[in-house]
From TrEMBL:
It is found in: Cell inner membrane. The chain crosses the membrane at residues 21-46, 52-76, 97-116, 136-153, 165-184, 190-211, 244-269, 289-311, 323-343, 355-373, 394-414, 426-447. Keywords: Antiport, Cell membrane, Ion transport, Membrane, Transmembrane, Transmembrane helix, Transport. NCBIfam families: matE. Its main location: membrane. The keyword Nucleotide-binding does not apply. It comes from Aromatoleum toluvorans. This is Multidrug-efflux transporter. It holds the Pfam family MatE. It is a multi-pass membrane protein.
């Protein structure tokens, strides 16, 4: 992918570039999700208390990681702008400062994981689960610096158009984690069975493995030599790190808001009974899996828009946004339609409980509607990041997903006039659909305003 791509790039060319960039990211994300699924299966076969501990512990771990990693994603638009403008001499220093920022952010993350008391109190977990959850978090904390350093490498590779290595590393990590976690949890390496602690140790080990693979690749691949990544290594530069924070903190909060708006539903819906929570969990897992496609496409849009913006090729940036929305929205609609047509066998894969299946089938319709609007707002939000516009989108995320989605869902589930006779978890999904509709409109309006603003200097 050339940093000096012409503004006359046709829609078909941009489609090819988007798909070329998105499919390795999609595979890498699915492989990462498969590690979480493997943890559930492996620990579930060991014991119920350990399964509960990995469920609670992974929830805390993912929340912390997503918040901090979101901040580090500022490396992607920053490097993409340098790449698009041909400022290769600025790319290496930006990556170096990204690594320093990752190490700085690891400190509060580790503290939260080593001392998770107030977070676990929010979940009111039983004492035996609490003890095992702390073991899991303590083990995974050892790998947190590696996670953040690797995700900085991840953002950098996306920005310079080299996503395939991320897929390869994800495959190596997943292929290592599954047998290692199984051995440590069940005691097959001349060690006593470690239960959920073994799962945490394996996670920490493969996180360092991922970072080691990334470092070796950076050092040995000749494609990175023009950037002089390890030459003239500098210590932390406050001005550059502050610039990354100004761009990245709103991105991290946006990610946290969007993720937490769904994770908190399970807590609010707990009063509705186990079947309602389980049915919601099934549909939420399906939604998360489907979301991987629009997310991968959106990351590709961010990179291409960032490169075009760096080259001040505003026509190509606009074309990328339009093509990205059309392709992503079309693919999401097709997936939603296929999910609706196969709804009964799909739901049956997750549970044999008829009550849970009934809840899942009732909620699945919302996924099918949700996908189109969610894909549009996701592409628009990432395109804005490509333009380095992040603060206002963060406010919009809070209004849409915490305001309309979460608060509105609580009202629609428990206090709406049509639900006074019987509260239902469907209210959260009804509000979730509405939140994505509002988000699609707001982000579309803001994105259009940003693109028009870039056209003003060229208008005369």
């Amino acid at each position: 992918m050339s940093p000096s791509s012409s503004s006359s790039a046709s829609p078909s060319t941009i489609v090819r570039q988007l798909l070329h960039h998105a499919w390795p990211i999609l595979v890498a994300q699915i492989l990462s999700m498969s590690m979480l699924i493997a943890d559930t299966i492996i620990v579930g076969r060991y014991g119920t208390v350990d399964l509960a501990a990995v469920a609670v512990g992974s929830g805390v771990y993912i929340s912390i990681v997503m918040l901090v990693v979101g901040v580090l994603q500022a490396v992607a638009p920053t490097v993409a702008h340098h790449f698009g403008a041909g400022r290769t001499e600025r790319i290496g220093p930006t990556l170096q400062q990204g690594f320093w920022l990752a190490l700085m952010l690891a400190v509060p993350g580790i503290v939260l994981m080593v001392f998770p008391g107030f977070l676990l109190e929010l979940s009111s977990v039983p004492p035996d689960v609490d003890a095992k959850t702390r073991e899991y978090l303590l083990a995974t904390a050892a790998g947190l610096p590696a996670v953040l350093l690797y995700r900085t490498f991840y953002a950098f590779n996306n920005a310079v158009g080299k996503p395939r290595v991320l897929m390869a590393i994800s495959f190596v990590v997943t292929a290592t984690h599954v047998p290692l976690a199984w051995a440590l949890v069940h005691g097959h390496l001349w060690l006593p069975p470690l239960g959920v602690l073994g799962c945490g140790i394996s996670t920490a080990i493969v996180n360092w493995l991922a970072f080691a693979c990334g470092t070796v690749h950076l050092a040995r691949n000749p494609g990175y030599r023009p950037y002089h990544l390890f030459a003239h290594w500098r210590g932390p530069q406050p001005a550059e790190i502050l610039s990354l924070l100004r761009l990245g903190v709103p991105m991290g909060l946006s990610t946290f808001i969007e993720v937490s708006s769904f994770t908190l539903i399970a807590l609010f819906a707990a009063r509705l009974g186990a079947e309602a929570v389980a049915g919601h969990r099934v549909v939420a897992n399906l939604a998360a899996l489907i979301y991987m496609l629009p997310l991968a496409m959106s990351i590709a849009v961010l990179v291409l828009v960032g490169q075009a913006a760096g080259a001040r090729d505003w026509a190509r940036a606009r074309m990328t946004v339009r093509v990205g929305m059309i392709v992503t929205g079309g693919l999401a609609s097709l997936i939603g339609l296929a999910m609706w047509l196969a709804r009964k066998p799909v739901i049956a894969l997750f549970s044999e409980d008829e009550a849970v299946r009934a809840v899942g089938l009732a909620l699945l319709l919302y996924i099918c509607i949700y996908q189109l609007f969610d894909s549009v707002q996701t592409v628009a939000a990432h395109a804005l990041r490509g333009y380095k516009v992040t603060f206002v989108p963060m406010l919009m995320h809070a209004v849409c997903f915490w305001g309309v989605g979460l608060a509105g869902g609580y009202w629609a589930s428990f206090h709406a006039p049509w639900r006074t006779a019987g509260p239902h978890v469907a209210g959260f999904w009804e509000a979730g659909v509405m939140s994505t509709v509002v988000a699609a409109v707001l982000f579309g309006w803001l994105l259009r305003a940003v693109m028009r603003r870039q056209d003003l200097p060229a208008a005369p």
